[in-house]
Design brief:
By secondary structure, the protein is an all-beta fold. The chain has no helices and 10 strands.
């Protein structure tokens, strides 16, 4: 059994625009969506690993993304995502396309609200096909407050020899959502 350890950290911010097909508009939303919805996202990510790492990197990424959500039977939801990452990694531009298909379901108990999910994602690297990768992920997002959630997941990455090795990883994430206020018009009919 060959084991390795790798640390990295990422921080970023995103602006989301949501539009459901019943004519309502929203800016960012922590809760699951119950209607057919289109989300447009732009954002910035900064990634770095510890300075004593054998494979150190500093990465700046501009993210452009379009997601389409729609409900399935049994209270499940599907997300079809098309994401482009425009990364500058150690001074080199590395654009990549990341399509993803995700299935999720919300659960609620007396004390806890969470969503469990499964997805498959492909990374298509425009500079080097040896860096392409295919990942499967299983996880859950736990609602902490109205505007934050905590995520834990298991991710498996298939090998793409010689550059991309097989990977099994456990991850955690904390997300905080800030919603924009909308002006409402008082209409008298």
């Amino acid at each position: 059994l060959n084991r390795s350890y790798y640390d990295e950290g990422k921080a970023g911010f995103f602006l989301d625009y949501l539009k459901n097909f019943q004519g309502k508009h929203s800016i960012s939303k922590a809760d699951s969506l119950r209607e057919r919805t289109l989300k447009i996202r732009v954002g910035y990510l900064f990634g770095v690993n510890p300075p004593d790492s054998s494979d150190s990197f500093r990465e700046h990424t501009i993210v452009t993304q379009g997601d389409y959500y729609f409900p399935l039977t049994w209270g499940m939801e599907t997300e079809v995502r098309n994401r482009f990452d425009w990364s500058i990694n150690n001074g080199n531009l590395e654009p990549r396309y990341r399509p993803r298909l995700k299935f999720s379901k919300d659960f609620a108990t007396e004390y806890l609200t969470f969503s469990s999910y499964f997805y498959g994602e492909y990374f298509l690297d425009f500079n080097d096909s040896g860096h392409n990768r295919w990942r499967l992920c299983l996880g859950s997002e736990f609602k902490v407050t109205r505007r934050s959630d905590f995520e834990v997941y298991y991710l498996y990455q298939f090998a793409n020899q010689p550059d991309i090795g097989e990977l099994s990883a456990i991850g955690v994430a904390l997300r905080i959502y800030i919603a924009a206020k909308h002006k409402t018009e008082n209409r008298k009919d």
